[in-house]
Amino acid sequence: MTALPSYRPRVHPLWWARRRAYLVFVLRELTSVFVAWSAAYLVLLARAALAGDAEYAEFRAFAGSPWVVALNVVALAATAFHSVTFLNLAPRAMVVRLDGWRVPGFLIAGGNHSAWLAVSALVAYLVLRS
Amino acid sequence: MITLQVSRYRPGQDAEPVFQDYEVPLRSDWAVLDGLAHIKDHLDGTLSFRWSCRMGICGSCGMTVNGEPRLTCGTFLTDYGEGPIRVEPLRGFPVIRDLVVDIDDVLAKLAHVKPWLIREGEELPLTAEYTQTPAQLEAYKQYSMCINCMLCYSACPVYALEPDFLGPAAIALAQRYNLDSRDQGDRFDLLATDEGVWGCTFVGECTSACPKHVDPAEAIQRYKLTAALTSVRNLLPWGRS
Amino acid sequence: MIFDVLIVGGGGAGLRAAIAVVEADPGLKVAIVSKVYPMRSHTVSAEGGAAGVIGEGDTLDEHAYDTISGGDWLCDQDAVEAFVAEAPRELIRLEHWGCPWSREPDGRVAVRPFGGMKRMRTWFAADKTGFHLLHTLFQTSLRHQEIQRYDEWYATRLIVDDGRVHGVVAMDIRTGAIEALAARTVILATGGCGRAFPFTTNAAIKTGDGMSLAYRAGVPLKDMEFVQYHPTGLPFTGILITEAARAEGGWLINKDGYRYLQDYDLGVPTPTPKLRSMELGPRDRLSQAYVREVERGRTAETPYGQVVYLDLRHLGEARIEARIPFVRELCRSYQNLDPVTDLIPVRPVVHYMMGGVHTDIDGATPIRGLYAAGETACVSINGANRLGSNSLPECLVFGARAGAAAAREAREAPAAGERAVRAQGADERRRLEHERDRRDGGAERIADIREQMQETLEEAAGIYRTRDALDKAANRIAELRERAAAARLDDHSTAFNTEMVAALELSSMLDVAETIVACALNREESRGAHQRSDFPARDDGRFLAHSLAYRGADGGPRVELLPVTITRWPPGERVYGR
Fold first, then answer.
1. What would the DSSP string read from start to end of B183-228?
2. C129-143 and C391-412 helices cross at what angle (nearest 10)?
3. Which stretches in chain C have pLDDT values below 50?
4. C-alpha span between C226 and C527 (Å, rounded)
5. I need a surface site. Which of A80, B99, C227, C307 has the fewest CB within 10 A?
């Protein structure tokens, strides 16, 4: 007796829109593009600053144009989203034991967030002090 | 009474699944599985589904309940208010009949990761056990709790899109032995592959779906770290042992 | 293709047997036919532990004595001696295969007290011992690729010719295909048949299939009247609350908060558990005490019958979490209460069959080449009442013994009788296809007949029995059998036809039910789990003997007696708490 066919469900193209968790995941993956842009922007800034005043002024004009400002606002939001969701996942990859006691996830995530805030504050202090 | 909208697929008869509605008594201590058993016993003997222990340990009765992968023995009718409750087979698997899915692929994957204790050299005689402290037991205990219910595979979009992906339970099972102080095996070649841990994009839904708190997502991410360190060590001239 | 060893059932005993076969001779062709994937087998539900002498100050003789007195002297003592000697080795073997046994701080395996045991000798993996044991066996079996598996195949008939087994006929549940599988030896390891009763800890799959297969082939079923009621099941679901809950210090109290076991010759209450006393008495005595409490009106009324309470509150959250976390998980998920703060309502629930397929100490049945092991079998080490934590090691010890014996036999056995395989295979295929296609059945459903059978057994063959009730039940079951043969099937399809499987299971359970009632009628005494209100005393003169139920020429059971093997422990009084 040959087996009757089993039904193989197809994956819907919008599968990621159907669950909040999948949507958050896909957004997190998409925000990588903005993380990459932020890195590229920083490299351009550093190059311009090192190349001399004329180059730097030209870069400032570019950076001040409305669409770049808009893009960077979006990039900031996206990068922040990426960082927060990434750090929230950190406890899953790190199991920390102190004298047999397993450090709970929220402390690990909290520690990561705190470190992130501390570094950001230090950078802000260095930049804004002048 | 409450309505169960049950997915029916009768091979040879249905080209694709269709829903059929059944009215079952709404009792406070009835699980969805009790509702299905009531249908089978009293309303429609043709409905097929798997179940056995009805105490959340045999792993047979996983289904999709209102869109979520659940063990139906531990999911209660009253959790869904007035209903209706939609009961479908686990997603991500071929459907054999009604609520019964084909899990042979996952079974092969479980076997693939060498889920047994690997020892080198002489075995101890049968008069003495390998010692293992409670802390050493604790190191892998959580990963030994998997009941193979397949809910994690059903929740994993990677498995749905890439059927070759080894998947959550298989990798967690490998970690169960990797982290066992008695095990001397090496599963690097099985796990550190594109179909293995690197296939995981860390959606994290496997862990949310797991009814036994195995946390397969954690198992996978932890092995990624192990695999990365091992790979780096293997690249260094003095790192290879 | 002829298998050397074909095992029906993939639980603890079946998997252990399969591994024993490949260990004995990797060249042998071995297969497991199981109606569920092996890791779904009911071994998975065992909670409390597995007994094996390991601790200092314990001896094999003490384990043997506890087992024999617990079984009310109906155990075969040579079998018990072999069992207690091999149990520790088997448990250590499991440890070597990776079983996550709970440990002492120094890293050695921990043991806990258990009901009816004089010493601490019960190994445990928290309170999921059966789960871990089964998964360890299953995963270890994956290492042996020569073990061929027929997952979700339902065996419906033994092929027997000329006093020798030649294989089985089985249905592939997924496709409906019916095939004759030829084999030199067959091991039955299908577990018990608690589902023949209305209220049971047993999983849906526990329908006495292996017992029925053997019985129909002419093998007697032994000691079927001994049905164990576990004293602590959750009302409605019948979910088991492990004896370990009492071993860790839990109390049984009635509706007045009184530890009622002190009124039933089980000792005096102490704050901490005392071995072989009070809550750590044997299961039969505890379940019988419940019935007496109901009669005295000291139990609490619930929609699912009278209950007493299991009190764990004084143990505290930390101990409950560390030692019996599954108890808490089950109470929270299925009873909506927390044992840390609430009383657990419990009542006795059908848990285990002491009886089963008649075998010798190697699992061999009277049919050449046919073996049985685990709950399906009756060797007998459990006598009239099994002690908690003896059944898991029984699966291992006698699974291994049956596997080794079958491997030996397979090397010498002639090739399976091809003609018998073909003829009986074709015959069975015709029968099953006819069953499946039957459209002209009456109005009755399988489930209705099943429910009536369950109620009949509960009424007549429950904790206390009488001749009148048993007589009525015997007639009723014969009548139900006729009605079952004419029942209606809604489902005539081939793919995963679970209604067809349910019909076949019902017919297995009716076989088992018939032998339970016949053996209970025949045994005019009270011993262990078999309590006759009309014969309240043990009668060693007449009944220090096993019941053997044969299938008679008319299809009904015929009961004979077989003397118990006594080696070193003459029958005595069962003393608990004194």
1. -----HHHHSSTTTGGG-----HHHHH-TT---HHHHHHHHHHHHH
2. 30
3. none
4. 9
5. A80
With bands split at pLDDT 50, 70 and 90, how would you rate the model's confidence at A92? confident
**How close does chain B come to A116, measured CA to CA in Å?**
21
Long-range contacts of C433-438 (CB under 8 A, 24+ apart): C433/C178, C435/C489, C435/C500, C435/C503, C435/C504, C436/C176, C436/C489, C436/C492, C436/C494, C436/C497, C436/C500, C437/C492, C438/C489, C438/C492
Q: Rounded CA gap, B120 and B129, in Å?
A: 16
Residues from chain B contacting residue A29 (CB–CB below 8 Å): 201
Window 29-58 of A, Cβ < 8 Å to B = 29
A99 Cβ contact list (under 8 Å, min separation 6): none
Number of domains forming the structure of chain A:
1
Q: Which residue of B117, B123, B182 is the best one to mutate when testing the C interface, meaning the one whose CB has the most C CBs within 10 A?
A: B117
Do residues C256 and C324 touch, judged by C-beta distance below 8 A? no
Mean pLDDT of chain C: 96
Which residues constitute the domain of residue A58? 16-128
Domains delineated in chain C? 230-348 (3.90.700.10)
Fill in the amino acid letter for C127: D
Least confident range of B124-138, B167-181, C109-123, C406-420: C406-420
CA–CA gap between residue C18 and residue B180 (Å, rounded): 25
Residue pLDDT, tens place only, A67-76: 999 999 999 9
SS3 for C14-56, per residue? Answer: HHHHHHHHHHHCCCCCEEEEECCCHHHCHHHHCCCCEECCCCC
State the nearest Cα–Cα gap between C45 and chain B, in angstroms: 7
pLDDT digits (tens, 9 = 90+) for C380-439: 999 999 999 999 999 999 999 999 999 999 999 887 689 999 999 999 999 999 988 877
Q: Is residue A53 part of a domain?
A: yes
List, in sequence order, every residue forming a beta bridge with C148; answer none if it has no partner. Answer: C31
Residue A5 domain-assigned (yes or no): no
Instruction: Return d(Cα C89, Cα C186) in angstroms, integer.
Output: 25
Q: Would you say B177 and B183 are in contact if contact means Cβ atoms under 8 Å apart?
A: yes
Contact (Cβ atoms closer than 8 angstroms) between residue C241 and residue C330:
yes
Q: How far is CA C63 from the centre of its chain?
A: 20
C66 or B239, greater pLDDT: C66
Domain at A40, CATH number: 1.20.1300.10
pLDDT in the model for residue A85 = 86
Q: Taking 90 as the threshold, does the pLDDT of residue A5 lie above it?
A: no
Residues of C in contact with A4 (CB under 8 A): 175, 494-495
ipTM for this prediction: 0.97
Provide Rg for chain B, Cα atoms. Answer: 21
Q: Which 8-state DSSP code applies to residue C462?
A: S
pLDDT value for C258: 97
Confidence band (pLDDT; 50, 70, 90) for A61? Answer: very high
